[in-house]
Amino acid sequence: MKDYGKTYSAFRPSNVRLDENGVWVADGITEMQQSFENGAKYTVYEYQLKYYAKDEYILDKMQQDREDSAAALAEAVDSLMAGRGLK
Length: 87
Description:
Layout lengths: L1 E8 L6 E3 L3 E14 L5 E13 H30 L4
Antiparallel strand pairs: 1-4, 2-3, 3-4
């Protein structure tokens, strides 16, 4: 993964964009007004840009999904145990 840090664009980026080599991820997209020297104001977008090789992105997503599933399962078990007075 390569983190390009804070990035600006005149166009709203897609959250995820694929190309032939990898995956571009834009997180934390915020719309801002930018004033220029001539007094004109334009809308710009600020976001964190990261690039992943395709395999790296797939493995990262699988790990994240696994962690989300484990957390959801733990919450469900806690809820069931609390409902039965076992906790």
